[in-house]
Specification:
about 180 residues, 7-stranded antiparallel sheet
């Protein structure tokens, strides 16, 4: 059997050498046209955005939520009105929250991770969360649907939030300092 394998391997090697020597074709040079690449990426991006929008709409229909939408694509709904001051840039927001995916899988929650504090307008949190907080006042309870481009984008948070994930925030604005 070992001799048969040697013979087959030798035959294959000789065949490869002979056929490659007879070929006199120049290797193809592949050049990418930047405008073609850009157009392909734009088409792909539009398809991804459309798919995410459809998933969000399906989610909203499933739960019967009627939400407002900002110009960036953030969807929000204040379902319990507070009576405190309005959030604004430069203040520290303290929130009680649950972050989940459209599948219902909970990623983070104040119950296990504690409350979250951040300086509004300084980054450090998802841009969709900062945008949404500015729509609230102290004591408000709200739900945000944050599309991936306003959350953790193409890579996720490299922990519990996967790539291209839409986030569902359920939160209460506890305090503003």
């Amino acid at each position: 059997m070992w001799n048969s394998l040697k013979l087959i391997s030798l035959f294959f090697l000789l065949f490869s050498i002979i056929t490659s020597c007879n070929q006199k074709t120049e290797p193809k040079k592949h050049t990418l046209n930047p405008s073609d690449v850009e157009e392909s990426l734009l088409i792909l991006n539009k398809k991804l955005v459309k798919s995410e929008d459809e998933q969000i709409e399906d989610f909203l229909n499933r739960y019967g939520w009627k939400m407002k939408e900002t110009g960036t694509g953030l969807k929000y709904m204040v379902y319990e009105q507070g009576s405190g001051e309005k959030a604004e840039k430069g203040k520290i927001a303290k929130i009680y929250f649950t972050v989940s995916l459209l599948t219902g899988e909970v990623c983070y929650t104040s119950e296990t991770d504690g409350t979250k504090e951040f300086l509004i307008g300084q980054g450090g949190v998802e841009s969709g969360l900062e945008e949404g907080i500015l729509l609230l006042k102290k004591g408000d309870r709200a739900k945000f649907i944050i599309p991936s481009h306003l959350a953790f984008g193409l890579v996720g948070d490299l922990d519990k939030i996967p790539a291209k994930a839409t986030l569902v925030y359920d939160l209460k604005l506890l305090n503003l300092k």
